[in-house]
Amino acid sequence: MTAAGPQSPIIPPPPPPPARFRFRFRAPRRTVRLRLTLLYVGLFLASAACLLIITYFLVAQQLPQTVTLRTSGGATAGTAGTAGTGGQLVTGGVGVATACSPPSANTLPTAAQMNACQLLLQQEAVGLRHNTLDQLLIESGVALGIMAVASVGLGWLMAGRVLRPLRTMTATARRISARSLHQRIGMTGPDDELKELGDTFDQLLGRLDASFRAQRQFVANASHELRTPLARQRTLLEVALRDRQATNASLRTACERALAAGEQQERLIAAMLTLARGERGLDTFEPFDLGVIAADVLAAQHDDADARGLTVTADLGIAPALGDPRLAERLVANLTDNAIRYNVTGGKVEITAGSRDGRPFLAVSNSGPVIPPDQLSRLFQPFQRLEPGRAGPGSGQRRSGLGLGLAIVSAIAAAHGAELHAVTRAAGGLAVEVAFPPQPADTAARVQGRAGALV
Length: 455
Description:
This protein is an alpha+beta fold. The longest helix is centred in the first third of the chain and has 52 residues, at 111-162. It has helices spanning 32-62, 94-100, 111-162, 164-175, 193-242, 248-280, 290-300, 302-308, 325-341, 405-415, 441-454, and strands spanning 67-70, 76-80, 84-85, 88-89, 286-289, 311-316, 320-323, 348-356, 359-366, 419-424, 430-435.
């Protein structure tokens, strides 16, 4: 056992250095209210300073600089810096009155007395003029300083009153979210720029609300449309697998139906991608001819028209336009397919392309079942269909569409800045016309040159 050695004393840690308070000047945030206040104060000081200078010079011009000293007999004796009337002098000092008073009532002042009186009067006038102007300048400066301080407070209050509608719009915008787009600012008051800004913001909220509702409806419809072929495909495969007495023919039939359901999904996905692409807008613009595109589409769909016994009439002229040729081809194909699909046996389809008033256009009309005019707008909404009878008698399942054809047409037309007009025909069917924006003068030449190169 060893003896414990001497223990070293525990040295406490040094105390922390005293905190140093550092004062940092932080400039106020340059808000619009602060800038308006400074603008008001600056304008007030500038206008007040100009008014002070103008008043100073006007008063200086009104103060007399010389005065004529007259004797009691009316003769001119000299000039002085104060006013004299009828031989009586208006002076500010006792010495002036004594020097300018005659020795007696019947004796005229001498020349020396007149010179001394004139000198004293000039000195008194100059001093009085300087004192008056200095006093005016000092009192005006004090008044200007007092009003400058008052203008800061008044400018701050007036700026806050002017910006109060903006604070209301800011608070409302912070409260509104994707789930409360139905709220509006509802600006009241005079019909000025701020109320116009509030109304514009309300219109923007209305468009956003409609866009969000359309997006939610589109997602719901797309989910339903995709679920239907998937469920059909799964049912077909499950039935085929559970059938222990299945033959090669039955299995082949089940596989063909599953492939048909898969093709329906592919068409739906392709249509949705085309719709999304059309709603996104165009990145580049290329020249194309609507007449050439319509001719190619008609050649591709000629067999379908013959199978329905339809009479197709085409009047295709030169229609030079700018945009995306692939999207334009989808627009023409959807319109033509819609005219053939939703028609009657032995019906008619008319397609016209050309230029009218410098604007390329495409018009497609067809016969078919009668469409109620109040249901026309539904045809251009995604996944919206009318009653099955619109497909025409004997159309079958093959003629059932996805409900995206005319919606894609509307999106592509909007992406190109084209005007879309659709009317229902009294005898049945639909007439649709798409008018593209006017094109530059060299567009037709470029389109014709490209068509010649292809030939």
